[in-house]
Amino acid sequence: MQYLFENVRVVTPEGDADWLLTDGARIAQIGLGNAPEVPQAQHIDGSSGYLLPAFIDMHVHGSDGADTMDATPEALRRMARFFAAHGVAYFLATTMTASREAISRTLRNAAECLGTQLDGATLLGVHLEGPYINVKARGAQLADHVRLADPAEYEDWLALNVIRQVTVAPEFAENRMFMRSCAERGIVVSIGHTQATYEQALEAVQIGARQATHTYNAMTGLHHRAPGVVGAALTCDLLTCELIADNLHVHPAAMALLVRAKGTSGVIAITDAIRATGMHEGESELGGQTVYVRNGKATLADGTLAGSVLTMDAALRNLQAATGLSVGALSPIFSANAARQLGLAQRKGILRAGYDADLVLLDSTLHVQMTFAEGRLIYHKGRDLADTAG
Ligand SMILES: [Zn+2]
Predict the structure, then answer these.
(1) 369 shares a domain with 331
(2) For labelling alongside 365, which of 108, 172, 192, 261 has CA 20 to 30 A away?
(3) Is 272 considered catalytic here?
(4) Is the pLDDT of residue 126 over 80?
């Protein structure tokens, strides 16, 4: 199958191009001016919108009534279909702080669901968020199950070879041992749900931490005499910063500050979305706790923010409003930087001939029209792909 995209701004690292041609799973050609004649290709009119690398969401718990911790293939499939409708081609299913057995079950289920999903986003692996965090910075993670890292527990988890990212509080020696084991295996080590000092955050970088989990949220803030984890995240080039760009977890001015401090190569948009995403507002659930969704805001009964109901395309619109940057400038925050962190930058995250045809077509108001993963159409607005499959 070949697709030829025309009448669209093709966002590439070298600037905008005018057309893009795919060939099977790869991008064949990108060019300026008139598109070539390719009679066998399916022509797609981009209606003066944007063609971007498909989004990668490294931190997402659930959507559409399903949650990673449900630990069923159907839950992951529901999530995958929902994400594709919001431009996401790849995601890390993210766990919550829970019992050993609940996490083990979740990891085993994810290990069985890795790989291609014909009508949705592809599961790349698991982001283990907790349980090795600081109870004083737990956010909406359940306090009862917060604990120190224990090799008797995590060696089994690592052996499943499904964890691609961990969120850990680095201020505990036991957790630092776990971080070392993860870094040695090429797992992205992210610091979060932490009360570490600035100095402890830099020590974490020394032993392999390379990311900050939902920067600003559930970590020590920036004080000019005690810069905290936020200060380390803002100034240490080795740390790439996750950001929940929903205007609720972080003020738009603080989002703009982060992008200025880190540059567009140093920030990764995530949704941290939960089961309630894409559902009617009201009561939902996260990590065994009741969540209340009102006016786009998900909280526990005590008002603590409990994940988000954000989607990646909305995050792009929010971040554009907050920073005033162009879609092309912001694009790495939604794909290339995550691809780099996950070791996929040789074939994913940018639009270039020879790279995987992971694409999202947006209209001029940045709403998703179509999503492709490795040349396969995984979402087409207004159409049920299940009807046309096969
Ligand atoms: Zn979190």
Answers:
(1) no
(2) 261
(3) yes
(4) yes
